[in-house]
């Protein structure tokens, strides 16, 4: 936010909210951008041939003894949470991704989500 505030020549002392600064600059929130990139990569993974290393790494399962404590968070868990926030299941999203019809509401169809 510091560089965005410098772009509009405002400081924290001006007590202007971050949302207002983002709207003036035309920037998207970082978390929204990360979610869009996650969904784009998920779509690529679903359309990849099964012999690609990235596809094999995503779909492989670890066999062996699990360490104590809470299970580690996987990338697919983050994608599932993002999709759940947009009322889509992982199975439904994978079918849409294969058909190239998986888009989040924040990303218009056929664009990268960047403002021109």
TrEMBL record:
Residues 63-73 have a biased composition (Basic residues). This is Uncharacterized protein. Residues 52-81 are annotated as: Disordered. It comes from Elysia marginata.
